[in-house]
Amino acid sequence: MSDALASLGRFLPELLLMGALAVVIVADLATQAWSLARSRNLLVGLTLAGLGAAFVASLGEPGGGSLFASMIADDGLLGVLRPLFALTAIFTLLFSLRAKELDGARMGEMVALLLTVTAALMWMAGSVNLVMIYLSLETVSVASYIMVGYRSSDRLSNEASLKYILFGAVSTGVMLFGLSLLYGLTGTLDLYGVRAALAAEDAGPALILVLLLVAGGIGFKIAAVPFHFWCPDVYTGASTPVTAFLSVGPKAAGFAVLIRFFYSGIAQPGADGTFAAVGGVDWQGLIIVLAVVTMTLGNVAALLQTNMKRLLAYSSIAHAGTILIGAAALSSEGIGAIVTYLVIYLFMNLGAFLVVILVHRVTGTFELEGYAGFWKRSPLLTVAMGIFLFSLMGIPPFAGFFAKLYVFAAAVEAELGWLAVVGVLNSAVAAFYYIKVLRIMAVDPGDGELPALRFSRLDGALLLALVTPNVVGILFGGALEQISEIAQRLLDLA
Amino acid sequence: MNSLLWLIPAIPGLGAAVNGLFGRHLGKRASAAIACGSVAASFLLALGFFFTRFLAEGGASARVEQSLFEWIPSMGVEWAYRLDSLSMVMTLVVTGIGLLIHIYSVGYMSHDGGFSRFFAYLNLFTFFMLNLVLGANMLLLFIGWEGVGLCSYLLIGFWFERPAAAQAGKKAFIVNRIGDAGFILAVFLTFVTFGTLDFYGVMGEIASADMQGGVLTAIGVLLFVGAAGKSAQIPLYVWLPDAMEGPTPVSALIHAATMVTAGVYMVARSGVLFSHAPAALALVATVGALTAIFAATIALFQTDIKKVLAYSTVSQLGYMFLGAGVGAFAAAIFHLMTHAFFKACLFLGSGSVIHAMEHAEHASGGHRHYTEMQDMRNMGGLLRHMPRTGWTFIVATIAIAGIPPLAGFFSKDEILWKTFEHGHFVLWGIAAAAAVMTAFYMSRQVIMTFLGDFRGGAAMEKHLHESAPSMTVPLVILAAGSVVAGFVGVPSALGGSYRLHTFLEPAIYAGGQAPPAMPHNYALEYALMALSVALAAAGIWFAWRRYRNAPTRDASLAGSGAYRLLLNKYYVDEIYDATAVNGTLRGGEGLYRLDQRVVDGAVNGSARVTMLSADLSDLSDRNVVDRAVNLVAEILGAASTRFRRLQSGLFQSYALLMLLAVVLLAGALVLWS
Amino acid sequence: MIPLEHYLIVSAALFSVGVFGILTRRNAVNVLMCIELIFNSANINLVAFSRFIEGALGGQVFALLVIVVAACEAAVALAIVMSLYRITKQVNLDKAAELKG
User: Fold this and answer.
1) In chain C, how many domains are there?
2) Percent of chain B with pLDDT over 70
3) By residue range, what is the domain housing residue A356?
4) DSSP-derived 3-state class of residue B623
5) Whole-angstrom Cα distance, residue B301 to residue B568?
6) pLDDT for B293-322, tens place per residue?
7) pLDDT higher than 80, residue B20
8) Can you give the pLDDT at residue B310?
9) In percent, how much of chain A has pLDDT > 90?
10) Least buried of A364, B78, B535, B652, by fewest C-beta within 10 Å?
11) A109 touches chain C (CB under 8 A)
C-alpha cells in the first residue's frame, strides 16, 4: 500500500493527464448545447492546460527506482520520453485546429483520446513487466484505432481504421502468444526476472519463436519491415494531425519497449556500456536484418510515391530502419543514439506534416501535383519545407544530421561499420524523393493565378517553433548528449 | 586579436541572415551594402591576421586557434577554428576574390527580381566556405562542405523558372550526395582509427607512429571520393558543366574560384595522411591527369562561352589533383590560387559579354533564347565595343595558357615539373598534352569572341557597349592579379625561392616532416620549362592559324566523327542514359520474374493481388527520377514499382507476406544460432 | 492430472486455426473471430503455465486482463466494421482496398 502511495507521487504527469481527461469528458457533456466553436475552444483550452501541466511536471531529473511493485521504471529513459510525448500531443492538438479534415468536427472525443494515448505512451515507455507492456501497448493501440477512424463518414478513414485494427490486433495477439511462452520459459512476468532466469539457463530454440512473435508486436508499433504494411495505408487514410502523431508518438514508445524488452529482458549489461544477449539466442542479427530491410524498402518504395502522406509514410518507415541501427549496436551509446534521433525526429517530421496540413488547407489535396508553384504563393512555406526536408535527409547544417551522426557513430563503435555504410548509402537514396518534393514546390508551375497564402498567427508560431530547433540544433551537441546520457540510465544502470 | 577569429566566418553569416530575413524590405542598395560590406569586413580581418601574424619572422608556422564551445563532447569535437598558413591563403582567396565577385554582382544582378535573395545566398555561401577552410576538425569542415553544397544547389537553380537550371541544380545535388557519402564514411573511419577528428591530432599521430597504407589507404580513397564529387573529377564531373545554368557570378565564385577547389584543399590539409598512403596518392594523381586531358578535349570545340570555361575548370582542377597526387601539395595550392584569379576573371568577363549581348538583343527588339546569347558563333569583334572586358579577358587567357611571366606559367609549370621529377613520365605526357589543348581552346575562345567582325547582326551591334564600372573594375583587379600572382612562387631555378611553398609547408606537414627536397637538376628543369612554354605557344599559334580568318570554320567538321564525339562531350550523358535504360530493363525484368514466381505465386494462394501496371516505359515517362542522373536511379525506380505492387491494399496479402517474412527470419535465426 | 504438454498442444492448435482463418476468411467479422482465437490460445498458455509453475500466479491475472482488453478491442473493431458497412454496404475485406501503392 505504501509503495502504491509513494509511487503516485512520482506518477504526476500521468495523473495530470488522467485528471484532464476526466475534466474534458465532463466539459464535453456539459457543453453539448453550445455552439461548435465555443465548445471547441473550451475543450482545446482545457486539454492544452492538461498537456502543458504534464509537460512541465515531466521535466527535471527522473527519480530512479521503480513504481507500483516493479511495473514501471522511473528511470532516465522514461524521464526523457515523457516530455517528448507531451510535446508531441501539444503539437498534434494545435495541428488539429488547423487541419481542414477536422473542420466542423466535434473535438470532445478527439481530445479525450489524445489525453488517453499520451498517458498510455508514458506507461509504455516505462513498462518493465510483461503485463504492463501488453496493457499499455493495447491502450495506445485501441485509442489510436479510434483516432484513425475519427471521421466516421469518410470511406478512406474507415478503411484505414479497419486495416489498422485488424493488423494491430493480429500483431498484439501474436506478441501476446509470444509473451505467454516467455512466461512459461522463465516463470516470471518481470523483465529483470526474465533476464535472470535466461542468464541462469539457456532457453533453446523456443526463445527464437518468442523473439519473432514479440518482434512482430514491436515491429508493428515502429512500422518496421515486414510489419509495416499497415503504415502507408493508415497514414493516408487518417486525418493528417493523427498521422503526424502516429509517426512520432507511438513510434517513440515502440522503440522504448524495444529497448526495455531486448536490453533489459533478454540481454545484460557488460563492461564499458555494452550489452550481451542472454538465453542462448544471438538476436543482434535479427535487429540488423530488420534495420537493413526496413531502411532499404522504405527509401526505395518512397521514390515513386505521388501522394505526400504516403511519401512521408515510407519516409517514416525508412527512418525507423535507421533508428534500428542504433538498437543493433547493443550498447548504451546505441540507446542514447536512438533517443537523440527520436527527439530530433519529432521536430523535423512534425514540421513536414505541418506543411502538409497548411498546404491541404488551401489546395484541398495531398497529391504532389498540388504542391506545384508554392514558391510563388508562399516563399516562407517553401523555405520551411526545405528546412524540414533537408533535416530529414540528414544534411548539415540542419539538426537531422546529428540524428544520423550519433546512430552511425554507435554502429561504427560497435564494429558494425558496414551497417553504417548501408545507412549512409540509404541516406543518399532518400535525397532523391525529398528533393523531388522541393523541386515540385519551387520549380513546377502551379495552376494559373492562385492567391498568396495567408497564415494565421497560430501557423506562424507553429512554424517558428518547429523550424528553429532544426536550424540551430547543430549548435547544441552538448545539450543533446546530456539528454542522451540521461536516457542511457536504465533502471538497473542508474 | 586571436579572439576575433570567429568573426571572419560570422560576419558574412550575419549578413546572410539579415538579407534573408529582411532583404525584401531593405531595398537593393542596402542589400548590396550589407552583402559586400560583410565580406569586405571579413577580408580586412583576414588581412589583419595576415600582416600581424603571418608576415612576421617565422610567420609560416604561426597558428591562430580559437575554440568557441564544446560541440560534440562524446567525440571530443569542439567548434574550433584554426588559422594556419594553409587556411590563411584559402581565407584570403575566399574573402578577397569573393569580395570582388560580390561587387561585380551588384551590377550584374541589378535588374533581377531576386536581388536580395541572391545576396543572402552568396553571403551564406561565404559563411560556409569560411567554416570549411577554418574548421580545425573534419566534422566542422564537413559542415562547411555540405553547407557550400547546399548554397551551390540553391544558386545553380537560382533562375529555377528555367527548367534547365532546376534540372542542373538537382543533378549537382544528387551527384554530390554520392561524393559526400564517401566523405562522411572517411570521417567515421578516421574517428574509429584515431579517436579524434582534429586535423593536427590525426596527422600528428600518423607521423609519429609512422603508419603506412592499410586503413590510411581506405581513408584516403574515401576522402578522395568526396573530393571527386565536390571538385568535379572523373566520373563525378558531370554536374559542373550543367551548373553553368546559374548566374555567371556564381559560376565564377563557386564553380571556379572557391567551392570546387575545396576538394584540393581537403587533400592538401590531409597531406600527411596521403603521403603515408601511396596507393591513395597514386589514385589521386591518375584521376587528376585523366580528368585534365579528358575535359580539355571536350573544351576544344564547345561553342557556348561558359561551357568552354566550365570544362576548362574541370581540366585545371585535374591539374591540381595531379600536383597533389605526386606529393606536391603546395604546388596544387599554388595553382589553386593563381587559377582563382584568372578563372574568376574569365568567368566574370564572359558574364560581362553575356550581359552586353542580352542587353543589345533586347534593345534591338530581338527575343532569341538565352543560350543563343552565350553562343560564341554569334559573337566576334567585341574587343572594339568592350575594350576593358576584352583586354582583361585576353590577359587572363595568356595567364591560363602558361606564357611567362604570368601567373599560370609558374603554377602549372611547377606541377608539370614535379610530376616529371617524381618519375611519373606518362602522367607528365598527358598533362603536357592537356597544356597544349588549354592554350588552343582558350585562344580559340578569344578569337571567336573578341576578334574579327561581329556576327550577331548590324541591328544588335549598334547597341553593344562596355559594362558598368562596378563590373569592369573587378575585372581589372583580377587581371592584374593574374599577372602578378605567380611571383609568390617563383622557383629556385629562376632565381626565386618558392616563397609560397615554404610558407605553406608547416601547415601541410603539420605534426610531420616535409619530405626531403630532391637534388636540383636545373638543366633538366630549364629544358622542360622551355618545352612547356613552346607547347603553350604552339597551342596559341595553332588556334591563330585556324580561326583568325574563319572563326566559325568548325562547322565544316560536322561530318567528322571525332569532332562530333568531342562536341557531344563523349556522349557521357547519353551513355549514362543508355546504360541506365538497359539496366532498368534487365533489373526490372529480374524483379518482375521474382515477383511472378515467388511473390505472386504465394499471394495468389490466399488473396488476389491487384497488379499495378508493369509497363516499364511508363517508368521513364513519369519523370520522377531524373533520367540523366544515373543508372542507379533507374534501377531504384524499377525496384520502387515492385515494392509498390507489394502494397496491394489487401489486408490478407499483407498478413501472408508478413507470415512468410517471419518464417524466413525464423529460418535465418535458427541457422545463425 | 493432465500434463502441461496437452494444454500447449491445444493452445498451439487454436493459434494455428486462428492464423489460418485470418489468412483465408474474406468477411471482416470472421477475421475478428479468428483474432479472438489467437488471444485465447495465449490465455490457455498463461493459465496452464501458472498452474504448473510453483508460486507463479501472475499468469492467471494476466489472462483476466487479456480477456478485458480483448473485449474492448472487439467492441472498437465491431464499431469500425459497422461504420464501414454503413458506407459501403458490405464487410468484405477484398473490397476494402482503395488505399494501396
Assistant:
1) 1
2) 89
3) 283-494
4) coil
5) 9
6) 989 988 888 889 999 999 999 999 999 999
7) yes
8) 94
9) 73
10) A364
11) no
| Angle of the A155-186 helix axis to the C4-24 helix axis, nearest 10 | 160
B574: confidence class by pLDDT, cuts 50, 70, 90 = low
C61 inside 8 A of chain A by CB:
yes
Residues of C in contact with B642 (CB under 8 A): none
Res B579: pLDDT:
58
Whether residue B439 contacts residue B543, with contact meaning beta carbons closer than 8 Å, is answered with: yes
CB A396 within 8 A of CB B146: yes
Mutate to test the interface with B, among A424, A434, A463 (most CBs of B within 10 A): A424
Q: What is the pLDDT of residue B578?
A: 59
Only one residue has cell 552538448, namely A478
Nearest to A233 among B184, B649, B657 (CB): B649
B80 three-state secondary structure:
strand
Interchain contact, B651 vs C101, CB within 8 Å: no
Query: What's the pLDDT at B372?
Result: 85
Q: To the nearest 10°, the Cα dihedral for B428, B433, B435, B438?
A: -150
The whole-model pTM stands at: 0.89
pLDDT surpassing 70 at residue A460: yes
Q: Nearest Cβ partner of B624 from A209, A211, A436?
A: A436
How much is the average pLDDT of B625-630?
43
Mean pLDDT of chain A: 92
Cα distance between residue B391 and residue B413, in whole Å: 24
The rounded mean pLDDT for chain B is 85
Q: CB-hemisphere CA count at 13 Å for B562?
A: 3
C8: CATH: 1.10.287.3510
E strand or H helix at B72? strand B64-72
- Tell me how far CA of residue B604 lies from CA of B115, C19, C23, C98, in angstroms: 60, 17, 12, 19
Instruction: Check CB contact of A109 with chain B, cutoff 8 Å.
Output: no
Which of B445, B348, B440, B376 minimizes the C-alpha distance to B402? B440
Residues 298-317 of A with CB under 8 A from B: 300-305
Q: Which three cell numbers stand for residue B496?
A: 626565386
Distance, in Å, from the CA atom of B409 to the CA atom of A265, rounded to the nearest integer, reads 71
8 Å CB contact between B378 and B285: no
Residue A52 forms part of a structural domain? no
Answer yes or no: is pLDDT of B647 > 70.
yes
Subunit contact C58:A170, Cβ cutoff 8 A: no
Tell me whether residues B670 and A230 touch, CB distance under 8 A: no
Chains contacting B (3+ CB pairs below 8 angstroms): A, C
Using the Cβ of B253 and the Cβ atoms of chain A, whether some distance falls under 8 Å is answered with no
Choose the most confident range, by mean pLDDT, from A2-11, A284-293, B641-650: A284-293
Please compute the mean of the pLDDT values over residues B371-387 and round it to a whole number. Answer: 89
Say if CB B327 and CB B515 are below 8 A apart.
yes
Q: What are phi and psi of C9, to 5 degrees?
A: -65, -45
Q: Does A212 touch chain B (CB under 8 A)?
A: yes
Between CA B130 and CA B140 the distance in angstroms is 11
**How many Cβ atoms are within 10 Å of B617's Cβ, its own excluded?**
9
Which residues are CB-contacts of B618 (< 8 A; sequence separation ≥ 6)? none
A165–C88 C-beta distance less than 8 A: no
Tens digit of each residue's pLDDT (9 = 90 or more) over B98-124: 999 999 999 888 888 888 889 999 999
pLDDT category at A135 given cuts 50, 70, 90 is very high
CA torsion angle B85 B87 B93 B94 (round to 10): -160
What is the radius of gyration, based on Cα positions, of chain B? 27
pLDDT exceeds 80 at position B589: no
Q: How confident is the model at residue C60 (pLDDT cuts 50, 70, 90)?
A: very high
The answer to whether C98 contacts A155, with C-beta atoms less than 8 Å apart, is yes
Q: Which domain holds residue C23?
A: 4-99
**How many structural domains comprise chain A?**
1
